């Protein structure tokens, strides 16, 4: 049985757009005709699965057929011994990936903003790792440490080191290399000193530790409105939820550009 292509959304900081990105990517893959699995490793808040539950409810309420993935809900191990619990969590994740791989070409995994054995295992399983960051030096700290006097990168962050360790685990398991993509969300529309600074340090660190930089989504109110109904920018024309404006069309193009830049195997232009 061929293993599905595993896409992991990873970032230790909240509010970076992981669940929004996961949802838009998932719907893009579904609309391209692929069977897609979904896992939410944030076992407390479950923002990704809540988004999908809202989507199911909207489709049922409006009589609008909306594409949905196969979902497996994981539960945290109840073992009292930490290492035993970690092993059970890892085994449950691998079992879910294997089960979804029997019918799915892609599996999209959303992770919480905290390091655990479960998130580390997900990163090691990732064929594509997407790390959304807000376009600021505050969020860059997730990836690396910068000298405030020279604006030079001093070294990788704890999160970057965790990704490096996960890549080594994949190599030991004779899996292919992870394509690590850093997604720049909430980018300013106009050129600014901060934007140039972030670009320079990102390019410096990218060459050192091996990730690609892809433009993400601008700050838009529509994203918060879409969550409540489980919709994405790709659904708006079909659902009749709102009348499309030029802003919505521009935002939808950002989604298309993001999916194209990910270079996922067998994925065509987003419709």
From TrEMBL:
Superkingdom of origin: Bacteria
Annotated Pfam families: MipZ (PF09140)
Gene3D superfamilies from the UniProt entry: P-loop containing nucleotide triphosphate hydrolases (3.40.50.300)
InterPro entries: DNA_Partitioning_ATPase, MipZ, P-loop_NTPase
Official protein name in the record: Division plane positioning ATPase MipZ
Alphabetized PANTHER family for the sequence: COBQ_COBB_MIND_PARA NUCLEOTIDE BINDING DOMAIN-CONTAINING PROTEIN (PTHR13696:SF96), P-LOOP CONTAINING NUCLEOSIDE TRIPHOSPHATE HYDROLASE (PTHR13696)
Species per Swiss-Prot/TrEMBL record: Paralimibaculum aggregatum
């Amino acid at each position: 049985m061929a293993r599905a292509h595993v896409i992991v959304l990873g970032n230790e900081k909240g509010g970076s757009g992981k669940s929004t990105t996961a949802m838009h990517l998932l719907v893009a893959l579904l609309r391209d005709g692929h069977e897609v699995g979904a896992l939410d490793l944030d076992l407390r808040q479950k923002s990704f699965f809540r988004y999908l539950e809202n989507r199911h409810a909207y489709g049922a309420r409006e009589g609008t057929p909306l594409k949905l993935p196969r979902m497996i809900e994981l539960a945290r191990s109840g073992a009292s011994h930490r290492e035993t619990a970690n092993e059970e969590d890892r085994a449950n994740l691998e079992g879910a990936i294997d089960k979804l791989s029997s019918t799915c070409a892609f599996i999209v995994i959303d992770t919480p903003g905290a390091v655990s054995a479960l998130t580390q295992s997900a990163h090691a399983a990732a064929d594509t790792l997407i790390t959304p960051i807000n376009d600021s030096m505050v969020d860059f700290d997730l990836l690396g440490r910068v000298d405030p006097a020279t604006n030079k990168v001093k070294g990788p962050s704890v999160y970057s080191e965790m990704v490096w360790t996960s890549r080594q685990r994949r190599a030991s398991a004779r899996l292919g290399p992870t394509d690590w993509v850093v997604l720049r969300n909430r980018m300013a529309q106009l050129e600014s000193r901060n934007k140039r600074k972030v670009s320079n340090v990102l390019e410096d660190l990218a060459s050192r530790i091996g990730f690609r930089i892809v433009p993400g989504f601008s700050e838009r109110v529509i994203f918060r409105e879409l969550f409540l109904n489980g919709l994405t920018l790709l659904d708006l024309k079909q659902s009749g939820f709102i009348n499309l404006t030029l802003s919505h069309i521009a935002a939808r193009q950002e989604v298309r550009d993001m999916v194209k830049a990910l270079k996922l195997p067998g994925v065509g232009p987003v419709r």
